[in-house]
Design a protein that fits this description.
With 266 residues, the protein is an alpha/beta fold. The chain has a single domain, classed as 3-Layer(aba) Sandwich (Rossmann fold), CATH 3.40.50.150. The chain is built from 11 helices and 7 strands. The chain has a 7-stranded mixed β-sheet with strand order 3-2-1-4-5-7-6, with helices on both faces. Helix 3 (59-66) links the parallel strand 1 and strand 2 (70-75). Keywords: Methyltransferase, Transferase. InterPro entries: Methyltranfer_dom (IPR025714), SAM-dependent_MTases_sf (IPR029063). It is an enzyme of class 2 (transferase).
Length: 266
């Protein structure tokens, strides 16, 4: 099987448990965490169009709809799209467009969206540079892009080389973020394709910034401490203390989450 097929097969197999986790996040404290983070960056105005790239179960699409956007959400996995549609029907989101589409080859006209968000997508792509070019192409001048990712592929590659076992790869700290335990077979599949992607050997997020600058994105902000806002300590939240946050930590072989945010030049 070619590498693109392996990537799609992996995410399609994870679609159901992934959906369950994101629904739990929507019901819990993660909704407020992400609403707060996104609200700091969204453009002002009415009738704004947002694109959720790699929507998965629809988590960010639902939040963007709550923030008043006209939302389009895409994913390469049909299983993910099917679950996102089911979740939207269950939760009463009737106006979101869910489309099966390749994030590296978007089927939208130039300057179609005011805001673009993505999470944990770029590290899975055969050509993330091409993806960034496409994302910037469909963004309107003055539009904003927000990407969350990590050096996951690099982390998985190093874990394999170090002989890290299955239990160690699943050694996550407790937090408000819902994470599903993957089978050892799925983890091996993930590591196999991840180490073949060129992005796993790149220094990030500096690389992301360079590519965005080349594609007309300016006023770029990098947050390499965003994990401290996302992976919040459970006990701290149960006590109602939103300031009690986790320190830097690694979840199995995962690298720390970062955010890259920028504005397209007018």
């Amino acid at each position: 099987m070619e590498i693109q097929g392996k990537i799609n097969n992996y995410w399609s197999k994870r679609a159901n448990e992934f959906s369950e986790c994101r629904l739990k996040d929507l019901e819990g404290f993660q909704r407020k965490i992400w609403i707060d983070i996104i609200s700091e960056a969204v453009p002002e105005g009415k009738g704004l169009r947002a694109l959720d790239l790699g929507t998965g179960a629809g988590f960010y699409a639902f939040l963007l709809a709550d923030l008043g956007f006209e939302v389009t959400a895409v994913d390469y996995s049909q299983n993910m799209i099917d679950n996102a549609v089911k979740n939207s029907e269950k939760l009463g989101y009737t106006d979101i467009k869910f489309i099966k589409m390749d994030a590296q080859n978007l089927e939208f006209q130039n300057e179609s969206f005011n805001f673009i968000i993505s999470r944990n997508v770029t590290w899975t792509l055969l050509d993330p540079k091409r993806a960034y070019e496409e994302w910037c192409r469909v963004l309107v001048p003055g539009g904003k892009i927000m990407n969350f990712d990590a050096n996951y592929g690099q982390g998985f590659k190093l874990a394999e080389e170090a002989g890290q076992n299955y239990k160690e790869m699943q050694n996550w700290s407790r937090s408000t973020y819902s994470r599903a335990v993957q089978s050892e077979e799925l983890i091996r599949q993930r590591n196999d394709f991840a180490k073949q992607l060129y992005i796993c050997d790149i220094v990030r997020p500096q690389w992301d910034v360079d590519i965005l600058l080349q594609n007309g994105i300016s006023k770029i902000t990098i947050d390499t401490e965003i994990s401290s806002r996302v992976y919040v300590d459970i006990q701290g939240n149960e006590e109602g203390n939103s300031d009690k946050k986790s320190s830097k930590r690694k979840f199995g072989s995962d690298s720390n989450l970062f955010m890259v945010y920028g504005i397209k030049e007018s």
